[in-house]
Every structure is written in structure tokens, then in C-alpha cells.
Amino acid sequence: MSVDSQDSPAPIVVKPGPDYPYVYSRYLEPIATVPLGVPVEIYTEDAFESHLYSSEQRPSEVLGKYLNPQSGPIFIEGAEPGDTLVVDIADVELTRDWAVSSHIPDFGGLTSTTFTRTLQDPLPEKVWIYRRQENGRFSYTDKFSVEPHPFMGTMGTAPDLEVLSALTPSKHGGNMDVRDICAGRRAYFPVNVPGAYFYTGDCHAAQGDGEACGVALEITGKVTVTFGLIKGKTVTWPRIESAEDIMVVGSARPMEDAARIAYAELVGWLVEDYGFDKWDAYQYISQCGKMYVGNMVDTYYSVVGGVRKPRPEPL
Amino acid sequence: MSVDSQDSPAPIVVKPGPDYPYVYSRYLEPIATVPLGVPVEIYTEDAFESHLYSSEQRPSEVLGKYLNPQSGPIFIEGAEPGDTLVVDIADVELTRDWAVSSHIPDFGGLTSTTFTRTLQDPLPEKVWIYRRQENGRFSYTDKFSVEPHPFMGTMGTAPDLEVLSALTPSKHGGNMDVRDICAGRRAYFPVNVPGAYFYTGDCHAAQGDGEACGVALEITGKVTVTFGLIKGKTVTWPRIESAEDIMVVGSARPMEDAARIAYAELVGWLVEDYGFDKWDAYQYISQCGKMYVGNMVDTYYSVVGGVRKPRPEPL
Amino acid sequence: MSVDSQDSPAPIVVKPGPDYPYVYSRYLEPIATVPLGVPVEIYTEDAFESHLYSSEQRPSEVLGKYLNPQSGPIFIEGAEPGDTLVVDIADVELTRDWAVSSHIPDFGGLTSTTFTRTLQDPLPEKVWIYRRQENGRFSYTDKFSVEPHPFMGTMGTAPDLEVLSALTPSKHGGNMDVRDICAGRRAYFPVNVPGAYFYTGDCHAAQGDGEACGVALEITGKVTVTFGLIKGKTVTWPRIESAEDIMVVGSARPMEDAARIAYAELVGWLVEDYGFDKWDAYQYISQCGKMYVGNMVDTYYSVVGGVRKPRPEPL
Amino acid sequence: MSVDSQDSPAPIVVKPGPDYPYVYSRYLEPIATVPLGVPVEIYTEDAFESHLYSSEQRPSEVLGKYLNPQSGPIFIEGAEPGDTLVVDIADVELTRDWAVSSHIPDFGGLTSTTFTRTLQDPLPEKVWIYRRQENGRFSYTDKFSVEPHPFMGTMGTAPDLEVLSALTPSKHGGNMDVRDICAGRRAYFPVNVPGAYFYTGDCHAAQGDGEACGVALEITGKVTVTFGLIKGKTVTWPRIESAEDIMVVGSARPMEDAARIAYAELVGWLVEDYGFDKWDAYQYISQCGKMYVGNMVDTYYSVVGGVRKPRPEPL
User: Fold this and answer.
1) What domain of life does the UniProt record list for this protein's source (chains A, B, C, D) (predicted)?
2) With an 8 Å Cβ cutoff, is D196 touching chain C?
3) pLDDT digits over C221-232, tens only?
């Protein structure tokens, strides 16, 4: 999939750095201002700002205080609070032939953490370097290899009142770590501030549902998006649309709250845009919904609830 | 899919009733004793024992004190505590051309419940009768219709010490409401008592992930299974195997505990049966795992964590 | 505090064993049948059936499959389903001069558990023997000593449909581990079966809120209670009354569900018995409620919500 | 209780407004710079900036977009990142003879919320004006009255990286809503930025544990504090000390994570400052800890775990 064609406008290229923000903030200076309807190629660092590259390293010795550098903020022309930012994701390109995963102390889904506190010792620190094989798959071992499914772990807009860590997923998007923020999807985010202040980053060559150890196949990337706006109408939580499906990402703890958000918002979407009665919508997701876990490791856990776009049918 | 063939032994037919148990109990008299390796056809009532059949009814007036009648217990010859019961599911046949869903007061995923208590009024009671259409799909409205995916909402064995409601999913299986308890799957349950005391029921013509309103397309059914045993080795939580995947069902609250159980058990499975080092297994599910929500409505919530069966590959 | 007086009827003495139930079950043979209004002295084993008595022992080597032996069932004359069992607790006497606490693998509030699963090693097994000092306090070290506050960790009635482990607290009472099940309190439990089938056990010489490591000062005891009935009216969750306060014990996970249950039931109690409007009751607990954590270690966590008995006052 | 004495330095008076921050932010201009060791009297607005004063009002029509105006930031001379800010609370004075509580739509402990989403209608909006009676108690009805216990619902320091809503409690303190932030207590907060950037507000004339409906007796106030520093040593979560007890406030969801944080930090405190072995500390809180719910309504729930200061005793 590519945005390059004779009819397309020349893409705008956004190369951030060397100083990356580690927050979703309305108070930072935009690194670019872009119009609607034009492909924008955004380069992104990996979650460790490329400081982790060898299985000999120990994350606690190498990494700085903050994780997850973002490419942004990008000012979207015409975006006003109360609008919805529409992001068509044309392509997520991996710009490196290796990816890194690791154990970070007190972080992950199958360990105690700084919030789910125990008196146990943390898991041992480890680093894995996955290399792209000739068949295109990523591997560090003969036990298994990983089919690439490139997507952006983080994407979203600046919150209105708060400045949130790039490790946090919430209503504004952020660190959702859901595999449907990938090529071919349209994402919707709330516009909270003039210009929306779009950020993205945390490219994953692949990731299992839940991102169990907390660290996917972290890699540098280039994401190509085109921005649009729905004027005067906002979304409360991030939405995703594919050719077939509509989806909502809920982020909260406990995980059931994330699940409730995703499905309750989906009911609302069906009522607003598909002419459903509220109880019919509840029935539809009850019988046809799909729900997977995006992450079970971040400051909030993200759950994706989706359903096929309904098509009227004769009884 | 069918077990009928010239070489197959004649199936054993188990027709339960008229008195159905509403528990998973070791103290009940078996309704059948079956050998290993022979197809067993088990007829099942719907979750409302067929008392709900019209959209004019109000569940609170019609339904009795207990829900979810089970077909069982079935005594499995040769099963001893410490073994694993292997259940090959050949077929789930729907034995009715209509299914029922409903709102039950204080029950469901998008309402307060008897545990997630609020001071709000409950959702209005409602009943929907879905009828099978000429195209095979189920519908009650022109807004949407449902592709059948028949599966058993409940399946499992008697616990050791406790007698648990048929509405409860836990280590013994029970009311997991996960769509992979369907034709073509092999399920594994712990054997806690001599004869295992197998139960099943709660056939669903289809169900969305999470069973959002708490009631799927409830229907009568006939499930065809063949039993096997793994002697002297037990599973702690229910496992499922397809041609491609291995899966574990965790049931707990909050939902993240169900997710942790599913993935932690999956790590154990990879270590035990696939020769994985523990950290390789954690990496494998971190990068390749799939995780969906079975139910977010029952006394415990069920989450399925799965992964492709690993195949050694050259580096 | 004592029930012995010249006017009191002679107390009934209930000495259970040697075979103790490890469940709350309606299916067991009563060990005693007692009338209303007469003091009943019930002897209880400690949670380890006295098998743990030395800091040299390892719990995993010494303990059997089940924990928390109960004294019961005791058949209460006249109790019928739909009634409320009233239990006036006159005294909890410690019948030993030492108590035991320990680390049980994968059990406790500051460790991963069989439900909150992680890949970490469990905490080391340990046993502490606390001895009663001359000043009446319990101690094993010069770092601290413990003022006795004897109470019963478990108390309740048989559930209707299920047989539940004596480790489980729920609507029927059971393993709540709340310090207000002590002398001078009146407790209320639902009657689910004829005779109520009362059980108690798990005497604690003292316990901190939450029972953080999962094991209090476990000790043998003798509890003196007098039973009463409220006919034709039941409670949904256990209630406790002191001279000054009314309290409800909610048991659930996540812990906020236990908290919601306790306060929602308290609102109901104020409406039913104290003539409160629902919103006044909600205001009253919002401004005057007390809420402490009973246990954060058992199969459900128990939270106690209470408030002063309201007294009308001139404006 | 008063800081006025002949030897005391004259107190510094901080009167904020008219523009109040609704965040804990390092990026705002300090409203005052204060030295260590001098009493500081800080005036505070109520949580609704005094816009809610009649039971005829509807909060959704009257209130602005943000709640919980703060008095701050106050720059503390000499405070550097890595220090601990010590706050001795001498007095919390109520500066009004009435207080207000209310139902805010989709907010509170016994209602669905914007995170615990359901499809039910919200509770009806209501406002209650409590007036101080001649006996000093607050009341709006003859059903009950409330003994004042003035405390500050919010207090803390600016986070390092983020800007957080004044409705959020976390590691920095903030909207903890715990009744031990009152006169006679010493509170400890982390210093994350030069000058600490201290904020306080949300004075409560009284509040029940959990702040069940989400709104306490909200009132304007004047809090008198004296600041100190522990140089070169920080606390991870807010700590409180009284003459008898040490306490930690954990804020998280689910509520058990808040409880784990509070007790795990308390274990650490006993190890660091009282010479306890880790397992002795775990035993001490297991047998002697107290744990109450501060709030079950805010963006994170706050739980207070405390224990008597240990005193060595002869065996």
C-alpha cells in the first residue's frame, strides 16, 4: 500500500528530533504545520530512542528517565476544539532490519509492577534483538519467528487540560498499543486544542495482544497518514474504522472498565451514525461484537471492541 | 462436520431431563457412564430451560430461581483425580430454528449488577426472539442479522471440594462462554473426582465476544464429543487446542487477573510441551499471542489467551 | 464479657471434630441442633487444624490439601429460608497461649497469587509462633508485640445452591476476616436452607486490616453466641450491629465492588429500617460513613462499610 | 490548635485568585514563595469555586468545564528534586457557615461513571446545602447531622513530567480525599521540581470514608502549614504521620492496587526508618495494620494504610 501516485500531491515529510517529547502536551512548539488532505510521512524513533541494541545491555543501566519518544506535536490546519481529527493511515514502514524487546524491571503483564505492588523480586532484566530473516520474519531464536505486522503503538492528540506521559493511553489516544493502528485503517481522535497537536510514535514491527512483557518488537519507522476533520462533532474515545469494521479503543483499569468503555461507545456510534435504537445496538454487539486486548501493561489497559458495519437486510 | 462414518462406532446418545442440575457437583447421580474413544451425542436445554420464547414475556416473571440447566453429570470410565480429561468436539448442532436473547435485571456487561452495585434503576427487561432466515442467519430485525457460530457456553468437570453454580466459570471450566468451545476443537479439563463428572450445556447459536448483554443466542442443541484421558497429569485451567493454535481460558475478576491466568498458563504449556525456556515463552506470547474476551458478565469474567503452535525454524 | 449469670439458661456446648468440614454446605450432617435464645459455646480449631506449631516447619510440607476447618453445621431450630439469622456474639475466648502466622506460597496481599498470576518466584515460606506475654500481648520478636483483639475469621450460613470453600467469603458470610465479628456485636446472615446450617471457625487472636500476608494470629478458640431469627425477612449480605453502629460486609473482586456492595446495602438498610429517603441515605454515608478493609487476600476481598445509627435531631 | 505564640514568626498569608489553576503543574507562575519553618496561612476556594450555593441549582447548568480550583503553586525555598517536602498541618479553619454537596452526573461511588460505563440513566442531579447549627454540627435535614472534621481534600506537589488534573490523586498527592490531611498531621510529598510547587485546596468540613457520592461537605477554608525538607531523600507515595501512627496513601485502580501500594510502602518505611527486617515488617502490618478507604470516586481510588509507630519491647 502506498500513497505515491501521479495524482497524489507530493507528501510532506516530517523528521523530528533530536529532542523528542515524552508527553502529549499542548504547550510544546509544533514541529510541523500540515494541511488537510495531503499525505504526511512521519519518521519515528523507537520506544528506547535507539539506546537499546544489544542483548548484553541492561535496560536499567542504559535507559534514561523517560521512555517512548514521540514525533510531534504536528499542528493540523483548521482543527478546532470540538472537531474530530480523522487520520487515514496509508502505510507503516519499518526503517530498520532489527527490532528490540526486553524486560524492564517492575513493568509488564506477568510481573508485579509499580502499581500492582508485591514484595517479590522483579523478573531478571533481559534484552532480545530480533533480526529480520530472509523470509521477512523477525527472530532471535530457532524456537519461533514473528510475522511482521507493523503498527504504531502510540497515536493521538493533545489533551485539553493535562499533559500526559507518552506511556499513557486515554481518551486522547496515546499509548494504546493496539494492532489496528496500522496501514489501511482510519482513526478518529478528539480535537481538544486549536491545531489538534497530533503525536505518534512507538512503531512496532509486531506485537501480541496485550503486549504481555510490556515491550513489543520496538523499531524505528515511517508512518504515512492523511489528515481530515469532522467539523463541530467530537469523539469521546478513539475510534478506528476498517473497510469492514468499526472499532473503539477503551483504556482504563480495571480492564473491565476498558471493555465497558469500548462497547458503550460502540453502542453510541451505532445509534448516532447507523440509525440503531439503543437496545438494538446492545443486541448487535452482544451477538456480533469482537473484543481483544491491546495492552495489559501500560498505565491504563487498552481493549478494542469492534463489530461489522451493519448492512440492512430483508427479514 | 460429522462423526458419522462406516468405521466409527455407533454414537452413544445422552438425553437428559426432565430434572436438570444447575450446578457442577460431584454429589449428583450420573445420568450416563461412557467409555473413552466413542462418540457421545449429548442433548442440551437452553439457558432458560425453554421458558422464554416470546418478546411479550418478562424474564423476572417467567424464569425460576436458577438459570443454565446442565446435561450431566456424565461419568467417564477410567478417569481418576490427577488425570486430564480430553474432549474432542466433533459437532455442535442447533436443534431449533429460533434462539432467544434478553435483558435480565441487574445482569450484563453494560449495566450495574448484583456485584457492581449502583443506585440506578436497572435496564428495562426485554426479550428478543431471533428466527433462522432462509439464508441460515438469525434475525429479529432488518437492522442486522447474525451468522451462526454454534458453540457450548458451558462445559467442564465437577470441582473437588465445592459445588459451583452453572453460572460460574472457573478452573473446572463451567460457564466460560468462549466461542472456541466449538466443533473442531479439543478441550482439556482437570479431573478432580473419579469419573470426572462431565457437564455441558448453554448452547449458543452465536455470541459476540464478551456476551455484552449477558445473554447470547440461547438455543437447544446437540453436541457430539469423544472423550480421552491423559493419565497422571492434570491441567490447572481449561485448555483448548485447534489445528493451528493452543489456548487457555482464564476466569477471574478483575478482568486483568483472567488475562494474567490465561497467558501465565500458556507460558507453562509452552515450557512443558514445546521445550521452551520460560523467558522465550514469555517473548513468544508477547509478540505473537492473541487474546479475546469470552464473557464480561458472569460471576467471573473469562479471557482466552492463545498462540500458534510453535514450529522450529532455521535462523 | 460473659453470658454466665444466675438467670441465664445453662449454655449449650458444641465441641466439633475430629472430622472438620472445609466447606459451607447444606449437605452435611449437623453436629448439633440448638434452640433460639440460649447461649451456645462453640469450640473451634485454628485455620491449620493445629498442624503448624513451629517456625522450623514449612507449610507446604505440613499442611493438607484444605485449610480452614469449620465448626458446623449447627442446625438452628425454627430457621426457614427467607428468614434472617441473628447471632449475638457474647464472647470470643482464646483457648491457647500461642498463635501462629505464616507465608503460604502464592497466597497473600503483597505477593502474586494463583489468580493474580506472575512469572516471579513466590515469597519464601516462613512460620512465626507468637506467644502470649505476661502483659497479655502476643509476640515473637522484640520489634513489636500485638494487643489481642479476638474475633472469628469465618462465620455464616450454608448457601442455597452451592457448596463453597471455607476460604471464601460471600453473601452467606464465610471467610470474611473482619474484626467486627467479635464480642459485643450482633451479626445477621441470610437463612437459605431449613435450619440455617450455621458454621464458624478461624479464630484470630488479632489481625490487621486486610490480613496482609493472608495469615492472622491463628489460634484455637471458643465463641459464645445466642441465636435469634427475624422471620420472613432476609438480608442479602452479612450485616453487623454494635451499640453505636450499623455495618455491612461486602465481599467481591475487584475491591471496589466489595466497597460498592457494602455501601449500597447500607443505603438499603437506612431506607428500610430508619425511614430514610434513598438520597438522604446516600448523603448520610457520603458524609459520615466509615469503611475499612477486612481482607485483601481471600478468594474475594471483604470491605466493611458502616455508619452511626442515625438519631433524629432538631434542625 | 494554633501556631500563634509569642515566639512564632508572623505567619505568611497566601490569598490566591481570582484565577485558580485546575491542575498540578510545574509550568505555572508561583503565587507565593515561602521559606522553611514559617507558618503559612493559605486560603482556599471550595471545589465548585463557590458557584454552587442553592438546592435549586442544577450542577450541569451552573458549573464550568473544570472542578476543584487549587491554591498554588507555592514555591518552597530550597526544595530540589530528590528531596522530600514535609508539611506540618497546624490548623484547618472553615471560613463559611455552610457547605455544599451534590450529585454530579456520571460521578460518584454508587453510580456508573465515565469510566465504569453502563447504558443506564444517570442519577438525578441534586444539590444539598448544609448549614452550621448552633451545636456546631452541619445539617440540612432532621434525619441526621454531621460532626465537623475539617481537612484538605487535595494537597501535594507538581509532578515531574506531567500536568495532572486537580481531580486526580497519584504519587504527587493531589485529590486524595483522605481525612488524615487534617490539623495535627505531618504529611510528606516528593519534590519533583525546583521549589516543589506546592498546591492545596478542596477543603471539606467533613467527609465519610470513600466520599461515596463524590462530593463531601465542600467549603472554603484556611489551612495553616509549616514547610520543612528532608534533603536528598524522597518518598515515592504520600506519607502521613500523627503522634501515634505512620500512614501511606496509595491511589490506583482497581482499589486493591491502591491497598497494595499503601501497605508495600509502609513495609518499606518500617525497613528504612525503624530497622525492621522486611518479613517482620510484613508481619507487623499483617497483624496490626489499619486500612481505610479515602475515596472510591476520583480518577484513582485512594486507600490509607497505617500502623502504630513501633516501640521496641522486652520479650
Assistant:
1) Bacteria
2) no
3) 999 999 999 999
β-strand pairing of B39-44 with B12-14 = parallel
A250 to chain B: which residues are within 8 Å by CB?
none
Q: How far apart are CA C223 and CA C183, in angstroms?
A: 9
Give residue D315's pLDDT band: very low, low, confident or very high (50, 70, 90): very low
Contact between A208 and B289 using a beta-carbon 8 Å cutoff = yes
| Interval C26-85: pLDDT, tens | 999 999 999 999 999 999 999 999 999 999 999 999 999 999 999 999 999 999 999 999
- What is the C-alpha to C-alpha distance for residues A68 and A64, in angstroms, rounded to an integer? 11
Using CA atoms, how far apart are residues D303 and D176, in angstroms rounded to an integer?
9
Helix (H, G, I), strand (E, B) or coil at B279: helix
Beta strands in C108-265, from DSSP E residues, in sequence order:
126-132, 138-139, 151-157, 164-165, 169-170, 173-174, 186-190, 198-204, 221-230, 239-241, 245-252
- D48 lies in some domain: yes
Grid coordinates given for A135:
523470509
d(CA C118, nearest CA chain A) in Å = 4
Cα–Cα distance between C147 and B11 in angstroms, integer? 67
- DSSP calls for A187-216: EEEE--STT--EEEEEEES---TB-TTS--
The residue count for chain D: 315
Are A121 and C120 within 8 A, CB to CB?
A: yes
CA of C143 to nearest chain B CA: how many angstroms apart? 36
Could you tell me how many residues make up chain A?
A: 315
Tell whether B7 is covered by a domain: no
Hey, are the CB atoms on C212 and D289 less than 8 Å from each other? Answer: yes
A264 in contact with D, Cβ within 8 Å: yes
How far off is chain C from B8, nearest CA to CA, in Å?
39
For D163, nearest residue in chain A (alpha carbons): A163
CATH number at residue B160: 2.60.120.580
Question: What's the total number of domains in chain D?
Answer: 1
Total CB pairs under 8 A between chain A and D? 65
Residues 6+ apart with CB under 8 A from A143: B274, B275, B276, B277, B280, B284, B310, B312
D39 belongs to a structural domain: yes
**Domain assignment of residue A98, given as a range:** 12-233
- Give the phi and the psi of residue C253 in degrees, each rounded to 5: -135, 150
Q: Which residues of D touch C215 (CB under 8 A)?
A: 286
Q: Is the pLDDT of residue C152 over 70?
A: yes
b (16+ CB within 10 A) / e for D44-57:
bbbbbbeebeeeeb
Please judge whether C161 and B118 are an interchain contact, meaning their C-beta atoms are less than 8 angstroms apart: no
User: Which region holds residue D53: left if phi is over 0, alpha if psi is between -120 and 50, else beta?
Assistant: alpha
Return the residue of A nearest to B128 by Cα. Answer: A283
Q: Hey, is the C-beta of B28 within 8 angstroms of any chain C C-beta?
A: no
pLDDT digits (tens, 9 = 90+) for D282-312: 999 999 999 999 999 999 999 999 999 997 6
What is the interface pTM, i.e. ipTM, of the complex?
A: 0.96
- Does C252 fall in a domain? no
C29 by Cβ neighbours in 10 Å (0-12 / 13-18 / 19+) ranks as exposed
